[in-house]
Amino acid sequence: MITTKAVLYKTNKKLDGTCPLAIRVTKNRKPKYIFLGHFVKEKNWDPKNSCVKKAHANSARLNNLLKNKVADIDDVILEHESQNKELSINQIKKIVNGESKDETFFSYAETYFDNLFKAKKYNRWRADKPRVNNLKKFLKGEETYFHEIDVALLKKFRAYLSNERKVTERTIMNHYVVIRTLFNSAITDGVVDRKYYPFGKDKIKIKFPETIKIGLVEEDIRKIEELDLKEGSMIWHTRNVYMYSFYFAGMRLSDALRSKWSDFKNGRFYYKMGKNNKVDSIKVSAKVLAILDHYEKDKQSNDDYIFPELKKTNPKDPQDENRKINTSVKKFNKYLKRISEQAEINKKITNHIARHSFGNIAGDKVSPQMLQKLYRHTDIKTTMGYQANFIHKSADEALDAVLDF
Fold it and tell me: Tens digits of per-residue pLDDT, 123-162?
């Protein structure tokens, strides 16, 4: 139940002794205040009747304002209750102040994606927006409120994605993740009550299917290093970028391409990881220096990119860098396939395999804490989960012990 009452908010008393007039809106015993922009002294306020005393020069006008605002809020509440729509106090404030209309799931999502774009989080924007669009298609474009997206609806959505769109279980989970993210954000913003949250115990559980991560072994890496490739060719350049990424603990391609000469100081490489904005430094090995030597002749300034892919990025187009990186991913993957064929490596090699390869070769050699630092993982659990794909020694030894008879 939501209740409203005109009050004098005494907590914010001004230096002249006046306090702001407000409408207190209470839901689930939690009050919030809608301030009206007018102030009166405590001696001119009648708390019993919730009005300004007649002794105040503008009492009639102010009391009329209070009465109308309370009526407006009550109308909003009544309208939503009659339609069984969820309504938060923040929504009431926005509607009464004329800031926005009733917030639907998709209108809230649109604002969320606009903010992602403005924050230059283009990869998340590009990946998550189509997932919400798929939900909109499933609902045939109908305006839908958060409380209507319940467990039953999400189960039907899952069946729709699996049967009609023929997507994988991992892709379905990715759809659930963005919906959950929007719910959490909306709960924080007061747009929806937590009781309508459809995820968690006895509700929708997000569990990604296990995947097999196969990295290269030391012999594979040596084969790639020793390939006789024509200097200056595209396949030669692809090998350089791939090995540069590997030598820096499986650095993501996007971060490798963003590398600048100014990032190298006193034998260390300093960079900010694009995925989580973590800043760190790492030792520059002799193998990295050998790669850098090939590109130094094209260096125009200390702020110049090392590799050519981003050199002509348009600074006036915030998406240009991201587009060029995505184009480069496809181009490099094509040439990495040729590298695997020439090196006679019977494994699929992509840009991200550099990260798997480093993890595979690290195996039991490096402590989880040090790998966490090298990978720039925020949580050690992420490192442990990732590295579990590559640590086989103990299990292999246990198997040999049992079968050795």
Answer: 889 899 999 999 999 999 888 888 889 999 999 999 999 9
Query: Which amino acid, 31?
Result: P
User: Which CATH number fits the domain 218-396, given the four candidates 3.30.420.310, 3.90.1150.10, 1.10.10.60, 1.10.443.10?
Assistant: 1.10.443.10
DSSP string, 349-375: --TTHHHHHHHHHHTTTS-HHHHHHHH
Residue 264 is given by DSSP the state E
H/E element, 394: helix 393-403
pLDDT band at 404 (very low <50, low <70, confident <90, very high): low
Q: What is the H or E stretch that residue 96 is in?
A: helix 89-96
- Residues 116, 123: Cα–Cα separation, whole Å: 9
Domain boundaries, the chain: 2-96, 105-196, 218-396
Q: Rounded to an integer, what distance in angstroms lies between the CA atom of residue 188 and that of residue 120? A: 22
Strand residues in 284-351 grouped as ranges (E): none
First to last CA, the chain: 73
Reference 158, options 198, 201, 98, 117; nearest CA is 198
Q: What is the pTM of this model?
A: 0.56
Q: Are 304 and 293 in contact (CB under 8 A)?
A: no
- DSSP conformation class of 260: B
Q: How far apart are CA 275 and CA 268, in angstroms?
A: 21
DSSP H/E element including 244 = helix 234-247
Q: Tokens for 257, please give them.
A: 């391409």
**The two three-digit tokens of residue 349, written as one number:** 């090699």
